[in-house]
Every structure is written in C-alpha cells, then in structure tokens.
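Deliverable D5.2: sample structural annotation.
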Amino acid sequence: MSLSVGRTAATARYLLALLLGEQRVLLPVVAFLAVLGVLFGGDPGPPPTPWAASALALYPVAAWVALVVANVEDPVRRTVTVTAAGGRAAVVTATLVVALAADLLLVALAVLFPLLTGRYSYPPPVLVTGAVAHFACASAGTAVGLLCARPLVARIGWSFCLALTVVVVTAVQPWLPPVGTAVRALSSGGGTPVGPALVGLSAAGAAALLSWWVDTRR
C-alpha cells in the first residue's frame, strides 16, 4: 500500500472541490444545524448533559457525510481519479481525510452552538469533554459510512439503508463503544471520553483500510 502525501493531499483537495461544487454535502450539514437549533433553542440546561443528544445525533449525520464523500464519484470517474492519484491508496486515504475534516466541522458546530446561543458558562475542561465526545460519535459514523459505501456496497440506495440499520441498532446500546459510552459520559458526567474517541478513529481507519483492500481485489 504505497502512499504519497502530496498526491493524497491533491486528491483530498479535488474531492473537497467536487463535493462543494455539487453541494451534496450541504444537506446533512443543514439538517444537523436544524437539529442543533431544536436541541439548544430553549433552555437545555447546564453542560455537558445537553450535549448527549447532539453527540448522538451527530452519529448518523457523520455516517451520511461519509457516504456522500465516498460515493461522490461514479465507478468510471473514480477509475480516472485512481489513475491520476497514482493508486487506490491515495484515493481511499483522501476520502478518509475529507470525511474526518467534515467531522471536525460538525463537532465545532455542535460544541460552539450552545456556547454562542445559550446562557450557561462553558469552562475549557467542559468544552474539551464535549468536543472529544462528539468526535467519538462522528468518527464512528464515518466508519459506518465508509463500510456501507463503494466499493464495499455498490448501490447507493442499499448503502443508505444498510448504514441506517447499523446506526439504529448500535446507537441504542449505551454500553457499546464508542457512541454509547461517549454519550453516557456526557449524560452522567463521566469525564472526558478519550478512549471512545480513539476507538472511533481506529474504526474509521480500519474501514478505510478494508475499503482499499476490497477495491484492490476487484
């Protein structure tokens, strides 16, 4: 799995430009902003407990974004991109990087929204806890999205159905890392969920690796 940083960065910029040009990624972002408006529009209470709902909501949104990123090109166009990038590794890595960058944007929105619109104070340790917990859920969503996208699942309709099923089944398990444990840490004041965040990030990386491996066998 040879990888060139320069080609990967160029591919990531290309995918990002393609996403912004076609505006496919705007819908999940706008949907998440609407959810934040509902959650924090009134008096949600002092942090970090209200973040439990937004972190849980971020899980399917991040999966949605990852699906959009991974499926932004049709198979023919992707073949051209693979050739231009010098191999599948650069394209898969760039896809992961763009999806995680989108996760960071969504995490920032979730953490800063109540800070800017609410009346409660948010000391730095609380902000760190909220950001880490949201990233745990977002990276887990990215893993689900990459596992349900091409080349593992060829049809977009099946991708969304499968991702939705996985999210619904796993999101309701409070004991299951990284989402369940991260949300529980916020709702119960269990401290900064660094472990779940690392699990989520590792899962996203493993999903990208599996995507590359499957793609090389086709």
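Annotation notes: The mean pLDDT is 93. Residues 88-117 form the longest helix (30 residues).
The annotation will be released with the project's public dataset once the embargo ends.
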